[in-house]
Amino acid sequence: MNTLTEEIQKPEILHLADRPNANALEHEAIYIIREVAAQFERPVLLFSGGKDSITLVRLAQKAFWPAKIPFPLMHIDTGHNFPETIEFRDKLVEELGVELIVRNVQDSIDQGKVIEETGKYASRNMLQTTTLLDAIEEFKFDACIGGARRDEEKARAKERIFSVRDDFGQWDEKNQRPELFDMLNGEIENGQNVRVFPISNWTELDVWSYIQKENIEIPSIYFAHLRNIFLRDGLIWSAEDDVVFRADDEIVEEQMVRFRTVGDMSCTAAVASHANTIEKVVAEIRESKISERGARIDDKRSEAAMEKRKQQGYF
Amino acid sequence: MEVLKIATAGSVDDGKSTLIGRLLYDTKSLTEDKLEAIEKTSKQKGYDYLDFSLATDGLVAEREQGITIDVAHIYFSTASKSYIIADTPGHVEYTRNMVTGASTSQAAIILIDARKGVVEQTNRHFFINNLLRVKEVIVAVNKMDLVDFSEEKYNAIKADFEQLMSKRDYAEQKITFIPVSALKGDNVVDKSQNTPWYNGETILEHLEGLDLAAVSNVGTPRFPVQYVVRPKTEEFHDFRGFTGKVYGGELSVGDEVVVLPSMTRSKIKNIYFYDTEYQTAPRRSSVTITLEDEVNVSRGDMLVKVGDLPTIDKQLTATVSWMDTDNMITGGKYIVQHGINKVLAKVDAIEHKIHPDYSGIDESSTSLEMNDIAKVRLKLNRPIFYDRFKNHRTNGSFIIIDSRTNNTAGVGFIS
After folding, report:
1. Three-state SS for B309?
2. Burial level of B391, CB count in 10 A (0-12/13-18/19+)?
3. Of the candidates B396, B313, B387, B321, which has an alpha carbon nearest to the alpha carbon of residue B354?
4. Closest Cα of chain B to A104: distance in Å?
5. Do the Cβ atoms of B1 and A209 come within 8 Å?
6. Contact call for residues B202 and B193 (beta carbons, < 8 A)
């Protein structure tokens, strides 16, 4: 254990505005996270193991230092996660000394609450919603902090920072509370909950630059690596596990790839890449001509795929 | 990275979405897949041009009806700045959405159709930007291609708008006129060959040149305490950190402060950002402050510098912009959220409605409908610590919550 004086860093820079990483979005996010801790009784941080939720965890650490993060993390586990993500999650939670709640989509399937999709495009991504809503009810969470960003997808661009969900977890997109200045209205009725998005105003590049500047550790699958893959509909699918359905005529080959977004294995495509360091990843994102969710198979289902999922209570 | 938030204002067919699309397109911020989706849908609809509004209208109903329902946020960046545009619709809930968009913006773009010139809507757009004290306003005279890039036409519109400027109560506001064609790309990102008579900047050049410190409204430092950090661990067992965001000005170690409402005096001992100590915290930074003395401070309290006290009062008069379908009524009870501080409030009197187009006031109102703006007197159950909105954008504003529905029903700007 360090003593107080050892732990606190004395700056070479006296004025906080002169910090080389000075970032208005970071101050905004920390403010939002503190509002959650103050306005709600049972908040939780939804943690997927992806870069956005890892960034959220760092922001929460900053918001409450030198105290621990005053709410648990919760992972809705589809059972189809990349093993690297789970390994990373467990290590991070141990370092932070915070509680981790895991609820499994498999349990919802076993209980007959949801039915597993079948066929070529089967994914457990949609099924997560039921498991999430059950967990919210089980723990009586009144605020769920998530890493969604408005630049990700156009239905998300309409999302509030404090977004009220009814008893059924539903998003009423046409009847949202206006958000003025910095004031966040967290008043809700019993049974309702608020989804909170502290990095609403960050872009993909903002997140990657932040990870780089803050030297934040992320799962290895974000960096270029050799992987067995196959091609379908112009996207690169992982062929390392039997989670993803593969037809006999879909030929497996080895390729240098990385993941730009990490969701469920069944709905996340890889991108061809040689970027094996954070610097190279940031440079690649900067140059990229394809949007982040261009590699999300779940969004390709229809133009309104995200809006529909959100109305049903998705993240 | 500097972040500039911009609100846009325009009537239905002024080309607002086209302008935003043009900014995205010319700064290469539209990725190939998004552009392909826009091309595909534009073609399906039988357009012979790219309908950039498809990039911003995110909801099914919006795409079906070809309208924008709600404030959308659009992001793009250049080498020097990140931009966030709040795109607000020009339909029924217009005032409500524009006030919302402008409240978080440091700059605004008002669009005028060069064929129509300054219209009644333009008065409203400018009125709201004045009310919200948006410091930097760009007046984009759009569709110049449809008036043959006529300098005379442009100058006539500029003169009309300058007439309007004489009515505002905000002399520090800076206004810049730019002739553009969003559809063709003239003077949006690249300089136009069609306006040789115009020597000024393009819209993007102007935005790039803005000094963020200069477009911000600066006042006296206010530090509302959001949350008290007490780690209670062995090595930090005496640590009591007051977290919050610094507004108005900066705070430094050694500053003598007063804690409101207890009026206890102390001195700032440390300023932390995460695990590092700093001498000074700039405005809008989220920091943790410790004090020299053991004083009782909790959420909702405010630290201010000695000699810089705000008004501490249980009543106030404010310009209220009403945003709810349920009317505000004289005698009605609401929750007032001033920053992070919540108090109960009663509507003492609706003094008069204000026509949001500089055409005067209406003194015979007892209730406010959605999109109404009025001078309202409120009584509070506890004192709050406020400044006039004119002097402090953050500490001079509040929201009104309807306690029956929990909706954010209105916003107030303290007189």
Report:
1. coil
2. middle
3. B321
4. 31
5. yes
6. no
Of B73, B274, B323, the CB nearest to A178: B323
Note the ipTM here. 0.94
Task: Give the count of Cβ contacts less than 8 A between chain A and B.
Answer: 207
Q: How far is B103 from B100, CA to CA, in rounded Å?
A: 5
Q: Is B59 on the interface with A (CB under 8 A)?
A: yes
Amino acid at A185: N
Residue B260 C-alpha from the chain's centroid? 27
Nearest chain A residue to B106, by CA: A181
Q: pLDDT digits over B314-352, tens only?
A: 999 999 999 999 999 999 999 999 999 999 999 999 999
Helix A51-64 to helix A83-96 angle (10° resolution) is 0
Strand, coil or helix: B119: coil
List C-alpha distances in Å: A10 to A17, A33, A224, B245, B270: 16, 25, 37, 21, 11
Is A182–B394 a contact, with Cβ atoms under 8 angstroms apart? yes
Taking only residues 245 to 304 of chain B, the set having a beta carbon closer than 8 angstroms to any beta carbon of chain A reads: 245, 250, 271-282, 284-288, 299
Q: How far apart are CA B296 and CA B291, in angstroms?
A: 10
Tracing tokens 């009644």 back to the chain, one arrives at B120
What is the tens place of the pLDDT at every residue in B253-303?
999 999 999 999 999 999 999 999 999 999 999 999 999 999 999 999 999
B227 to chain A: closest CA residue:
A38
Give the pLDDT band of residue B58 (cuts 50, 70, 90): low
Residue B350 has, within 13 A of its CA and on its CB side, a CA count of 24
Quick: pLDDT tens for A67-86: 999 999 999 998 888 888 99
Query: pTM to 2 decimals?
Result: 0.94
- As given in the structure block, the two tokens for residue A108 are 């919802």
**Positive or negative, the Cα torsion across B215, B217, B221, B226?**
negative
Min distance A256 CA to chain B CA atoms (Å): 22
Of all helices (H) and strands (E), which one includes residue B23? helix B16-26
Beta bridge partners, B273, equal: B276
Which value, in Å, is the radius of gyration of the alpha carbons in chain B? 24
Contact A177 B77 (CB under 8 A): no
Tokens of A262: 């990490």
- Residue B181 is classified by DSSP as B
Give how far Cα A76 sits from Cα of A37, A260, B125, Å: 21, 20, 45
> How far is the alpha carbon of A84 from chain B, nearest alpha carbon, in Å?
28
Beta carbons of B286 and A16 less than 8 Å apart: no
Instruction: Give CA–CA dist B254/B269, Å, rounded.
Output: 6
Backbone angles phi, psi at A74, to 5 degrees: -130, 130
Q: Provide the shortest C-alpha distance from residue A147 to chain B (in Å).
A: 16
**Which residues is B415 bridged to in the sheet?**
none
Place of tokens 């076993």: A110
Residues of B in contact with A97 (CB under 8 A): none
What's the order of all strands across the beta sheet hosting A100-104?
A: A100-104, A73-77, A43-46, A143-145, A193-196, A162-165
* Secondary element (H or E) of residue B151: helix B151-165
Token couple for B366: 């007892």
A161's tokens: 């920072």
User: Is residue A105 packed enough to be buried (19+ CB in 10 Å), middle (13-18) or exposed (0-12)?
Assistant: buried
- Using an 8 Å Cβ cutoff, are B289 and B270 in contact? yes
